[in-house]
Amino acid sequence: MKSENRNKLTIALFVIYMLLLTGVILFKLPFFSSEISDGIRVINLIPFQGSFDDSGTIDFREIRGNILIFIPLGIYICMLKSKWPFMKKVLPIVALTLAFEAIQFIFAIGRSDITDVLDNTLGGVIGIGIYALLFKIFKNRTVKVVNILALVVTVFVVLYFAYLFYLSHFVMRRLHP
């Protein structure tokens, strides 16, 4: 694959990822929650305060999900801006996370939480680390290898979202009129 075509594929996959990320964070996709806007504005500035369940133990599902969903962002930043130093790569991850939290607060669509900022940033940093490791293994073929993997994963994720959309908008409505 030529370098120019590889870059176009990277950009296209990045745009799809950003659309999916925005959908998941701001619109709670693929769950299509009816509680997208409950009108309540909440800011939690105490790390991991909202991560405890009723028994007082940490529920790692949301933490893990927030970390995992931002790993691709770190990888894409490395692919698109390979010459940037580490801290310059981290900056857009933090900025995007803060933007998502601010939008959630302004439009009352979810809770603004410092834990999300920490988890999302950690996910992006892990993505940067994963890309660095892949680069040590694949050298100049890294972008090509990651693009192929990202294309496969993106197709599956889009199909999964489409399936859940179908279930929630067509199947479930017939079952519960």
UniProtKB/TrEMBL annotation:
Keywords: Membrane, Transmembrane, Transmembrane helix. Residues 14-134 form the VanZ-like domain. It holds the Pfam family VanZ. The keyword Transmembrane helix applies. The keyword Transmembrane applies. The chain crosses the membrane at residues 12-32, 63-79, 91-109, 121-138, 145-166. PANTHER family: MEMBRANE PROTEIN, MEMBRANE PROTEIN-RELATED. This is Teicoplanin resistance protein VanZ. It comes from Bacillus wiedmannii.
